[in-house]
């Protein structure tokens, strides 16, 4: 299942609180878009759509994923990095599951 870092959750909460008609049902939604045989993730601020998988993130942030996106993001981590201008940008990386050392 997608893991959401505390920093990503904070940015999601900031975005949803600034959106028009903000309410507790709005979160960050991932959908998989296919364009010319290439898949791309689309992000939007949205309410839950029937069939979405919902991840309860830290600090009450919500992340919703349509089924194809949920399958793709199953072993990923959603984090935030700074872009060249110093603005927050979402980043997706593989989860680092290391076996505990004995």
UniProtKB/TrEMBL annotation:
SUPFAM superfamilies the UniProt entry points to: HesB-like domain (SSF89360)
Domain of life: Bacteria
Name assigned to this protein: Fe-S cluster assembly iron-binding protein IscA
Provenance organism: Lentzea jiangxiensis
Lineage summary: Bacteria, Bacillati, Actinomycetota, Actinomycetes, Pseudonocardiales
């Amino acid at each position: 299942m997608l893991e959401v870092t505390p920093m990503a959750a904070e940015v999601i909460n900031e975005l949803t609180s600034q959106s028009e008609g903000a309410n507790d049902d709005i979160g960050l939604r991932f959908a998989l878009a296919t364009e010319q045989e290439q898949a791309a993730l689309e992000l939007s601020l949205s309410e839950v759509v029937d069939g979405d998988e919902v991840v309860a993130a830290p600090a009450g942030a919500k992340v919703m994923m349509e089924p194809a996106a949920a399958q793709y993001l199953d072993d990923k981590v959603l984090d935030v990095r700074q872009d060249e201008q110093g603005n927050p940008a979402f980043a997706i990386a593989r989860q680092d599951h290391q076996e505990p050392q004995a």
